[in-house]
DNA sequence: GTCTATAAGCTGATAGAC
DNA sequence: GTCTATCAGCTTATAGAC
């Protein structure tokens, strides 16, 4: 690993970080290479030198964003306790929403705009994951472990609610009149969301020792 | 009301409708007057003639979009049954999400981008409404009519979940593998979301006669 | 009131000096 | 590898004929 390569790596990351913020704030069309370059502290043509085109830069930012989003609910099986799994899923997603707001907004912008650049990801990666999780929820319901309801709606509900604090951060802050959400907010919101969804699905967390 | 004025009115509405769709699809920067004009079936300069500038047209579309969004939960008081009010609120918001997807996406885009054009609306109109509804929920909880939890999170949860089907329509369709959501879907989703949130808040709908 | 022609500026991308 | 200068194209907005 030469010094040269280290520097290349640094510039790559610097551009990707700046691009994530700009694309997340303004969408693909609204973000300009000019502003991304300024945010990264580099001249504009360097962006093109490293990433060839705006479309390719956007794709790379998206790829980085989509990796490892649902790494927890993933491994659950029929034997697991749905209350524990869903509570954990909600809290992890909520924490990600607080910590990686830029990535969440970028993804939201892309989907709202028609998901033109991530059609393959949705169909080939997310859809199989989603189908298997719908089946797991249905199996839990059939086994009498949770109340019968539409499993897909349950997943959408968790996604929508947890992402809301990142995607609609501007609205949440304006309505609460504070400048940023802290750890206490994360805790309070997590407790409320988890308790409502669990109780709504007829679930109870096992008592802690 | 002369024929001239009727025609002016028609053109106004035609442009506003076209602008709502374009802004909703591509955001403020992504939408061009060219495409709005084409969608409205008019030459480009007419847009400027009627609306002076792109920024002003955007503002007018937003104003039109923001009117009468929460016209139901609005009138509820401590005496009302929270189960009936929240069930109705959820179903109305969900129906609006299905029917006015473009407006919902436009608003979502604006908030994700930092809510720069609607800061006044959020602080001077939506915030007082939000505060009064948080107080009402808290009063219901204190009166023992519903379970104690964070009232703001309950409202965010209803907003986020119902808007999800409009804002993330592309993802919902890709994951379910269908081409559009129908009335049966609206019914099923409404039943699920309403039952989870009501049960989660310790509420039960009164039996129908 | 409506449209053609065009101005003035920003966009993504390239060429070429260093 | 890095940056200055610049291209061609599209953007919003305007001027002026009809």
UniProtKB/TrEMBL annotation, chains A, B:
Domain HTH tetR-type: 9-69
Keywords: DNA-binding
InterPro entries registered for this protein in UniProt: Homeodomain-like_sf, HTH-type_TetR-like_transc_reg, HTH_TetR, Tet_transcr_reg_TetR-rel_C_sf, Tscrpt_reg_YcdC_C
Coiled coil: none
Record PROSITE patterns: HTH_TETR_2
One Pfam family it belongs to: TetR_N
Keyword DNA-binding: yes
Feature: DNA-binding region: 32-51
SUPFAM superfamilies per record: Homeodomain-like, Tetracyclin repressor-like, C-terminal domain
Top-level taxonomic group: Bacteria
Protein name stated in the entry: TetR/AcrR family transcriptional regulator
Native organism: Marinomonas rhodophyticola
């Amino acid at each position: 690993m030469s010094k040269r390569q280290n520097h290349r790596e640094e510039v790559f990351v610097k551009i990707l970080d700046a691009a994530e913020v700009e694309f997340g704030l303004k969408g693909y069309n609204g973000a300009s290479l000019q502003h991304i370059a300024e945010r990264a502290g580099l001249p504009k043509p360097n962006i093109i030198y490293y990433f060839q085109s705006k479309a390719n830069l956007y794709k790379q930012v998206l790829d980085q964003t989509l990796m490892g989003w649902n790494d927890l609910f993933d491994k659950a099986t029929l034997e697991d306790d749905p209350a524990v799994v869903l509570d954990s899923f909600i809290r992890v997603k909520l924490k990600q929403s607080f910590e990686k707001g830029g990535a969440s907004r970028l993804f939201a912008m892309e989907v709202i705009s028609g998901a033109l650049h991530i059609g393959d990801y949705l169909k080939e990666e997310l859809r199989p994951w989603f189908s298997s999780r719908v089946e797991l929820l249905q199996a839990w319901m059939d086994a009498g472990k949770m109340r019968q309801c539409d499993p897909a709606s349950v997943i959408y509900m968790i996604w929508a609610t947890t992402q809301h604090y990142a995607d609609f951060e501007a609205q949440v802050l304006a309505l609460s009149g504070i400048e940023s959400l802290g750890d206490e907010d994360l805790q309070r919101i997590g407790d409320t969301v988890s308790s409502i969804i669990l109780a709504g699905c007829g679930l109870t967390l096992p008592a802690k020792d």
